[in-house]
Amino acid sequence: MKRLASYCFVFATFAAVTGMGMGIFMAASHDHSLAPAHAHLNLLGWVSMALYGLYYQTHPEIAARRLALAQVSLAVFSIVLLIPGIVIANLGGTELPAVIGALLALASMLLFLGITVAALIRDAQTV
Ligand code: HEM
Ligand code: HEM
Q1: Ligand 2: which residue has its CA nearest to atom 27?
Q2: Ligand 1 centre and the CA of 117: distance in Å?
Q3: Which range marks the domain in which residue 77 is found?
Q4: 43 CB within 6 A, ligand 1
Q5: Which residue, 40, 42, 74, 103, could crosslink 19 as a Cys pair with Cβ 3.0–4.6 Å?
């Protein structure tokens, strides 16, 4: 997809704004119980999505592939499931959304591994 890197950055920034809001709320309320959800929203949402975006920005031919769109969609979906899932689990509720979100986050990272390794092999074959 043509604008895949920009979509990564828009989502990453949305995660950063939400994560920072959560951080300020924790600091102001002196209640740090949301720290794991805050940490992973920032690290998977802001940092990892921005890194995916940087890779796709510098590899537009790979970003154009449907597999790249699938990888980013899976990453977004996993974060949307994992972060509320951590909050629910921390509040003593079901762990199911957090477990599914975590497995999907891992799946999207494994897909990214496949995409980057395949690109490296293609590169090596053309020189
Ligand atoms: C407005 C910005 C931010 C504020 C006010 C904020 C605030 C906080 C607070 C109050 C805690 C809980 C600390 C504790 O219980 O020990 C925390 C934990 C954490 N924050 Fe932030 N944060 C901000 C941005 C970020 C960003 C941008 C990242 C990552 C890119 C981040 C990563 C973390 C991590 C990993 C933890 C967990 C640390 C631990 O448990 O040892 N934070 N933050
Ligand atoms: C499938 C994805 C992930 C899962 C299921 C996961 C799970 C966990 C768990 C269970 C903890 C312990 C939380 C606690 O003691 O309260 C933790 C802590 C932590 N993780 Fe992750 N993690 C994931 C991805 C990541 C990534 C991608 C990063 C960094 C880029 C990261 C950075 C951290 C940090 C800094 C801590 C310590 C902060 C804290 O205790 O809240 N994690 N993670």
Answers
A1: 44
A2: 32
A3: 4-126
A4: yes
A5: 42
The residue type found at 18 is T
Domain count, the chain: 1
Amino acid at residue number 109 = M
How far is the centre of ligand 1, averaged over its atoms, from the C-alpha of 89 (Å)? 19
**CA-proximal residue: ligand 2, atom 5 (nearest):** 102
Q: What is the pLDDT of residue 62?
A: 97
List of long-range contacts for 9-15, beta carbons under 8 Å, 24+ apart: 9/49, 9/50, 9/53, 11/45, 11/49, 11/76, 12/45, 12/46, 12/47, 12/49, 12/50, 12/53, 13/46, 14/45, 15/41, 15/42, 15/44, 15/45, 15/46, 15/49, 15/79
Cα(74)–Cα(68) distance, integer angstroms: 10
